[in-house]
Design goal:
With about 475 residues, this protein is an alpha+beta fold. Helices cover about 30% and strands about 25% of the residues. The longest helix is centred in the first third of the chain and has 23 residues. The chain is elongated, with a radius of gyration of 27 Å. Bound molecules: 4-amino-1,4-dioxobutan-2-aminium adenosine-5'-monophosphate (4AD) and magnesium ion (MG). The site of magnesium ion has 2 residues, from strand 15.
Length: about 475
């Protein structure tokens, strides 16, 4: 259908233009003079456009009592508006009702709804101001991600969703199988006979595309992969999903410092893009959700991230005058409360923590000369904590094989990954950015379930 978006109508089109608009009615207000005002939203922007429906329209009676949520096509003329807070409105020549909404049952009425309630009607929550804005920001962030890498000479690659490897070595894998759960085939020893399964081996949904991305980086130089990843971890927090989107760049010949530089430039690009291109939606979040988001993003793009080692971070945390749920100590992983303390109290900005103990990080991270730490890097931001995890990779064959055995992984099962270290091995580094945590940070939305259209969490796979 050839139609003008509300976004174009309210920002660009000159008064006088004849246009066709289509969308969903938010409110109808009958006026004394025998006409009605419709607030029409089509999802293209936060703003509604005001439609003036004249009493002379043939279906005026039906228009004047249109229930919220009904869909219409409006043909008319854009005119300068007398009303407050709007440049233009539409003088309708014709309004066709496309689909009536059931007035009694439509769950998204024009009143305050809690986020918890809106999660139960996730298929309709995009019709609210908040979720319309979140989905548009999510799109803009995704676009900015591609733009950054494409402009900087990265090749967009696709890594598999179904895999036999456990990149993070944490065992948080969803199984992929076509075996009959009620009648499982057994091998001679009584174990599961995976030879009878679809792939003739145990397979899973990927937790990360990194291992495959490393092989592609060692052919193409600079690559990124951007897709869904899956973690069967039983975490019920405002920052964890069982299915989330991750963007993972991988660069041959980069070391840990290059990796940190890339992460910082990349995040700044995303934030700058959103500030420049999503002004109305960002003002909405700043007004309604978190009145610090715009100033925070502006501050971040204009200053340098703090960088320190894990050991330095531990010194700060152990000296801090604070009672912790998880007392910090060298050798223990940083918890969200520690990450938030560093970013919100100590430095008041994003922080890149490097050189974590090898014992708390996966096998693929490059072992440092001290034998105790690895060339790891986490980027932490206020409120969210970890937004990026990455490292320089172990490029030495013998060290990698040793580290794999220590992590109870059989190098033979990862022969192709290990092979990279046999044929022109090079230092290389990369990281993973969680898309949902990024959208949370940008919008100020408190719960990660509210920045992905259909969240998957323990005991929840509705829609
Ligand atoms: O730190 P993670 O586990 O790193 C990796 O998977 C590496 N293989 C990435 C790489 O180096 N190529 O995850 C990376 C990021 C985290 O910093 C976080 O933003 C996000 O992915 N993330 C999650 N987001 C939502 N729900 C979860 N359960 C997440 N787990 C990780
Ligand atoms: Mg991590």
């Amino acid at each position: 259908m050839n139609r003008t978006t509300v976004q174009d109508a309210v920002t660009k089109c000159p008064p006088g233009e004849e246009l066709t608009l289509a969308g969903w009615v938010r409110t109808v207000r009958a006026s004394k003079g025998g006409f009605s005002f419709l607030a029409l939203n089509d999802g293209s922007c936060l703003a509604n456009i005001q439609i003036v429906a004249d009493g002379k329209l043939s279906n005026y009676d039906a228009i004047a009592k249109l229930p919220t949520g009904s869909s219409v096509v409006v043909r008319g003329q854009l005119v300068a508006s007398q009303g407050k807070g709007q440049r233009v409105e539409v003088q309708a020549g014709q309004i066709d009702i496309v689909g009536l909404a059931d007035a009694e049952k439509f769950p998204i009425q024009q009143k305050h709804h809690s986020m918890e309630f809106l999660r139960t009607v996730a298929h309709l929550r995009g019709r609210t101001n908040t979720f319309g804005a979140v989905w548009r920001i999510r799109s803009a962030v995704s676009w900015a991600i591609h733009e950054f890498f494409q402009k900087n000479g990265f090749v967009y690659t696709h890594t598999p969703i179904i895999t036999a490897s456990d990149c993070e070595g944490a065992g948080e894998l969803f199984r992929v199988s076509t075996l009959d759960l009620l009648n499982l085939p057994r091998d001679e020893k009584g174990g599961l006979d995976f030879d009878k399964d679809f792939f003739a081996r145990a397979t899973y949904l990927t937790v990360s595309g990194q291992l495959e991305a490393e092989t592609l980086a060692c052919a193409l130089g600079k690559v990124y992969t951007f897709g869904p990843t899956f973690r069967a971890e039983n975490s019920n927090t405002p920052r964890h999903l069982a299915e989330f989107w991750m963007v993972e760049p991988e660069v041959a010949f980069n070391d840990l410092r290059d990796n940190a530089d890339l992460a910082e430039a990349f995040l700044k690009h995303i934030f700058r893009h959103v500030l420049e291109h999503c002004r109305a939606d960002m003002e909405f979040f700043n007004e309604r959700i978190d009145n610090t988001v715009i100033a925070t993003l502006e501050g971040i793009v204009a200053s340098d991230f703090e960088r320190l080692t894990y050991t330095q971070a531990m010194e700060i945390l152990t000296k801090a005058d604070k009672t912790w749920e998880f007392p910090p100590a060298w050798g223990r992983d940083l918890q969200t409360e520690h990450e938030r303390f560093l970013t919100e109290q100590t430095f008041k900005k994003p922080v890149i923590v490097t050189d974590y103990p090898s014992t708390i990080k996966p096998f693929y991270m490059r072992l440092s000369d001290d034998g105790k730490t690895v060339a790891a890097m986490d980027v932490l931001v206020p409120k969210i904590g970890e937004i990026i995890g990455g490292s320089q990779r172990e490029e030495r064959l013998d060290v990698l094989e040793r580290r794999m055995r220590q992590s109870n992984l059989d190098p033979a099962n990862y022969w192709w990954y290990v092979d990279l270290r046999r044929y022109g091995s090079v230092p290389h580094a990369g990281f993973g950015l969680g898309l949902e945590r990024t959208v949370q940070f940008v919008t100020g939305m408190a719960n990660i379930r509210d920045v992905i259209p259909f969240p998957r969490t323990p005991r929840l796979a509705e829609f």
